[in-house]
Structure formats: C-alpha cells, structure tokens
Amino acid sequence: MSSTQQEPNADSQTKEQYVDISMGKHEIFFKKEYKILYTVNEFLLGLWFLIGSICFYFEELKTWGVTLFVLGSMQMLIRPSIRLVHSFHMRKHYEREYDEKQ
After folding, report:
1. Tens digit of pLDDT for each residue in 38-65?
2. Band of pLDDT at residue 23, cut at 50, 70 and 90
3. CA angle 78, 84, 24 (to 5 degrees)
4. Residues 61, 65, 66, 71, Cα dihedral to 10°
5. Which one of 49, 60, 70, 83 is most buried, counting C-beta atoms within 10 A?
6. pTM score, two decimals?
7. Is 9 helix (H, G, I), strand (E, B) or coil?
C-alpha cells in the first residue's frame, strides 16, 4: 500500500472517513457486480438507435424509428441511475461494516 493511502480503521476514524477510504480501496471489486448491467444497457441503447436510424429510410417505419429513439433516450437516463444505485449499495455496505466494528 502506498504511503498516501490509509488502511481503513474503524477505531481511529469517523464513519465518513472509514466509508470513503474503504469504498476507494474496493471500488473495482464492487464494480464487477454492476458491469453486466452497464454492458446490457449500452448494447441495447446502441441497438435501439441503430434500428431507429434504419427505420427512417422507410416512410412506413418512421413511427417505429421515433419510438426506438425515445426508448434509447430513456435508456440514457438508466446509465446514471445504475451508477447511483451502485454507489448507494457500496456506501451502505461499508457503513454497516463500520457499525459492526464499533
């Protein structure tokens, strides 16, 4: 461990310090759980926009194209939602861990 990083210690740190240090230390581990959600969302987002774009070449499919663009736009809102849920779960995990060590 480098000299700039601290080892999380529930006895000598506040709950907020403990959680922030622990989260930073284990962030990559926790991202694995959510990687599949990110990947599926990104794949579907690209698919909807691609199919929607192709639909605009045909007059009778333009309504489908617009619908797929709206669906893709809604999925763009899912991205930050996944990140927020991920951060929330990670923070709660370390808060519980801190409380158990007290």
Report:
1. 888 889 989 999 999 999 999 999 999 9
2. low
3. 135
4. 140
5. 49
6. 0.53
7. coil
